[in-house]
Amino acid sequence: MNDILSEIFDLVEAHAPEAPPDRALEQALRGTMSPEQLRLFEAYQEAEFHREETDREALFRFLLHAP
After folding, report:
1. Rounded CA gap, 28 and 40, in Å?
2. What is the pLDDT of residues 25-56, one digit of tens each?
3. Which residues, 6+ apart, have CB-to-CB distance to 33 below 8 Å?
4. Using CA atoms, how far apart are residues 57 and 51, in angstroms rounded to an integer?
5. Contact partners, residue 60, CB within 8 Å, separation at least 6
6. Where are the alpha helices (DSSP H) in the chain?
7. Count of beta carbons in the 10 Å neighbourhood of residue 9
8. How far is CA 35 from the centre of its chain?
9. CA 21 to each of CA 26, 58, 60: distance values in angstroms, whole numbers, following the listed order
10. What's the whole-model pTM score?
C-alpha cells in the first residue's frame, strides 16, 4: 500500500500537463536502427523512464519536506 506522499505524487503526475510524443520522429529514428540497436534503444528507454520516475518522486518528497 502506498503512503500518502506516494498517493499525492501519483495524483499530481496523473494531472500534470505533458507534451504529446512526436510519433513520426520516433518512427523515423527507429527506421534507421538495426534490430540489435533497436533492442538496446528500447532497454535504454525503459531504464531512463524508471530513473526519471524515481528522480521526480525523490524531488517531490524533498520539496514537501523542505522548510
Report:
1. 17
2. 989 999 999 999 999 999 999 998 888 888 88
3. 41
4. 10
5. 5, 9, 12
6. 4-15, 23-31, 35-65
7. 19
8. 24
9. 8, 25, 24
10. 0.55
